[in-house]
Specification:
elongated, alpha+beta
């Protein structure tokens, strides 16, 4: 407790399962200043990982965000905003797998534009 002033609890969480077909047995440790029940702390840990799995993982793996290097001062913010808009738009339209969404829409510009809310302008009827 001396090393972490204000902390109330140190949590050790053990996670078991499979990843890429291989067994996984990991321990994760958390330090918190929350003073609450074990169930509430576990809920906080699960909430944190649900954000990681549904948001950050998608950005890092499916969109390869960590691999990009931007030179402009605000370039990374602009591209991050565009990625956020793309993810949100896919999910609002019922596409939860960004990888599948990109694959389905990559070569279908009309479908992509419709997903973004674009409507084809009405054509004028020929007079006659």
């Amino acid at each position: 407790m001396e090393q972490w002033p204000g902390s109330a609890t140190i949590i050790a969480e053990r996670s078991q399962g499979t990843r890429d077909g291989r067994p996984v047995d990991e321990a994760r440790y958390y330090v918190t200043s929350l003073r609450t029940s074990t169930k509430a702390l576990l809920r906080q840990v699960r909430n944190r990982w649900s954000i990681e799995n549904s948001w950050h993982w998608v950005r890092d793996v499916a969109l390869r965000e960590d691999a990009h290097r931007y030179r402009e001062t605000n370039g990374f913010q602009i591209v991050a905003m565009l990625r956020t808009m793309a993810i949100n738009n896919l999910r609002l339209n019922g596409i939860w797998s960004v990888t599948e969404g990109i694959a389905a829409l990559a070569h279908d510009i009309k479908e992509l534009l419709m997903l973004l809310g674009w409507k084809e302008p009405a054509t004028a009827q020929p007079s006659g």
